[in-house]
Amino acid sequence: DQQVKQNSPSLSVQEGRISILNCDYTNSMFDYFLWYKKYPAEGPTFLISISSIKDKNEDGRFTVFLNKSAKHLSLHIVPSQPGDSAVYFCAAEGFTFGNEKLTFGTGTRLTIIP
Amino acid sequence: DTGVSQDPRHKITKRGQNVTFRCDPISEHNRLYWYRQTLGQGPEFLTYFQNEAQLEKSRLLSDRFSAERPKGSFSTLEIQRTEQGDSAMYLCASSQQGENSPLHFGNGTRLTVT
């Protein structure tokens, strides 16, 4: 039972353009969502998060949008840079409901084309 | 803050042998998590500690797996009688207890069981 889904295994984007990574979840008790970035041979690195009480959170080139009614979130990267090439994982937890462990999606490999 | 440290980085073992991995979390973090990641998948939760108490274990953690955090600082994960299906990346992460505290991951231990 995959509670967090990333349906696009890979995405290629031209440098300077916008990258949009998508994530869907099924568990309505998730109330905190995060994006992690992973380079080869390294552990995942925290990128940005959003609480369920918000619908948008921005940090520099990175913006996360949350649509609770659709159980969908997305990560926008603009402008995309070559260093953004990595695997991106969406993750969720339900802190308010005592679920304090992260459930991860399967990841999307983003490739930025120079 | 030197980050989360894991040792060894790589471990190759024969089926049936026991292996032990070590994780040193960020010093001020009181929570420590173990995850497992296989090819093409996101990290999957195994277990977590708050200080020295093991608060939750996944059903993925069979009887052959045991984790400890004896003094609330470093943690060990032992796998007894390894099987080929145990081959994976074992990730450790730490965080501060509290709402919306992201996990900080180490670079993992890659286990290969031959």
Question: Descriptors for this entry?
Answer:
heterodimer, A: 114 residues, mainly beta, 6-stranded mixed beta sheet, 5-stranded antiparallel beta sheet, 11 strands, 0% helix, B: 114 residues, 7-stranded mixed beta sheet, 4-stranded antiparallel beta sheet
What does this structure look like?
Chain A has 114 residues and is mostly beta strands. In chain A, 0% of the residues lie in helices and 57% in strands. Chain A is built from no helices and eleven strands. Chain A has strands at 4-5, 10-14, 19-25, 32-38, 45-51, 56-59, 62-67, 72-77, 86-94, 99-104, 108-113. In chain A, a hairpin with a 6-residue loop joins β4 (32-38) and β5 (45-51). The radius of gyration of chain A is 14 Å and the shape is globular. Chain B contains no helices and eleven strands. The model of chain B has no long low-confidence stretch (mean pLDDT 93). Classes of the chains: A mainly beta (114), B mainly beta (114). Chains A and B meet through β4, β5 and β10 of A and β5 and β10 of B.
Please provide the count of β strands of chain A. 11
Class by SSE composition of chain A: mainly beta
**Runs of chain B with pLDDT <50, length 5+?**
none
Q: What's the count of strands of chain B?
A: 11
Structural class of chain B: mainly beta
Q: If you compute it from the alpha carbons, what radius of gyration of chain B comes out, rounded to the nearest whole angstrom?
A: 13 Å
The H-and-E topology of chain B, N to C, reads as EEEEEEEEEEE
**Major sheet details of chain B:** 7 strands, mixed
Helix content of chain B: under 10%
- Major β-sheet profile of chain A: 6 strands, mixed
Give helix and strand order of chain A, one letter per element, not per position: EEEEEEEEEEE
